[in-house]
Amino acid sequence: MSVIRTLPPLMRTLLFWVIIAIIAGSLLGLVLPAWAIVPFATFNAVFGEFLSFCVPLIIVGLVAPALADLGAGAGKWLLITVGIAYGSTLFAGFATYGVCRAVFPSLLANEKVSELTEPTSAVASVLGDNFEIPPMFSVMSALVLSFVLGIAIAALNPRIIRRGFDEFRDIIMVIKRAIVPCLPLYIFGSFLNMAYTGEIAQVISAMVKVIVVSIILTFALLIIQYVLAGLVAGCNPVRALGRMLRAYFTALGTSSSAATIPVTYECALANGVSRDIAGFTIPLCATIHLAGSMTKITAFSMAVLFMTGSSYDLGSYALFIVMLGITMVAAPGVPGGAITAAQGVLVGLLGFTDPMYSLMVALYIAIDSVGTATNVTGDGAIALVVNRLAAGSLGKERARSLEAADDILSGTD
User: Fold this and answer.
1) Closest C-alpha among 359, 369, 367, 366 to residue 306
2) 364-337-224-254 Cα dihedral, nearest 10 degrees
3) First-last CA distance in the chain
4) Which of 88, 202, 333, 387 is 20 to 30 A removed from 58 (C-alpha atoms)?
5) Counting Cβ atoms within 10 Å, is residue 337 exposed (0-12), middle (13-18) or buried (19+)?
6) Domains present along the chain, CATH in parentheses
7) 353-373: pLDDT as tens digits
8) What are phi and psi of 259, to 5 degrees?
9) What is the pLDDT of residue 116?
């Protein structure tokens, strides 16, 4: 750990190591012999099985306590905020599905691969073909169990069980933080294999196109959110969005919704949101409002399915989007956390293989900070809506907050 702390700040970011993994894997896979790829293929096989084992536990450990916490808070406006945030996340998912279904057939027409080959099928793995770590229960079982336990704990508030789940969540967060640093090596092994099998050119070309589409979609999403918020709150959406730019650029640097909460809170005050409303909507939405992450995961997953010739019909994606919006609750504790939590629904509902998932991770982390910035900036729009609904009008408090906007935006805390 002391060696890591001595590295320059850029070299300590997950994105930096993911880029290095993609470049190194793509180049080395073209020249290395099969025997040199075996260790990395073996690691990917073990790590993929370990992920599959951990995902149901991650879902129960994060989703159940999160639902219990939401229920325990009770309160009309908390429930309204949760409903608006989840609705925004669902809208992002279904809108992205519609756009990508229309765009990808022409955009990715020349980027298809027959399949994303399993690393252990390209080279002989020392583990054999039958190696597996079966999960304790399926992803769907984990989701249902989380809903049942979360709602029951919220209703009954049993202190011992609640404390036990809070401690279990702490354990799961340690496991999740241990998984994320391994992702660059996992991605390196996958790109090493894709270069070795000759799939890398189509994959890299498609990645660039899909990333550009995803960034454009996040910008469009923010514009829609603030136009709607402006209509409800009776404010200028351009100015409201402009006052949130400090939060957007802070999130670009931190890649963490939680770390950006103080800045997002100040920007919400600058938009005339009362301190009481901003005080509970901003921290709450930092956990449950993941419209930007939903946009990226939906677009990337559709691109991977299209490239491999797999089905992405609306029926399967409707369930995927609904479940993903819930599964990601409390997931963004660390950079890349949402895509880790999404592994269960990607595999369980869309039939992703380990190489397909590793490509998803590479795509997601490449613009992780953009999704986070979209999430936190959208939180400001939700705060405006809740403030209007709760207060009836922004009145004198909005006027006082707007008078202080210049001080806040200039950096005076």
Assistant:
1) 359
2) -90
3) 33
4) 88
5) buried
6) 2-409 (1.10.3860)
7) 877 887 888 877 777 788 888
8) -70, -20
9) 60
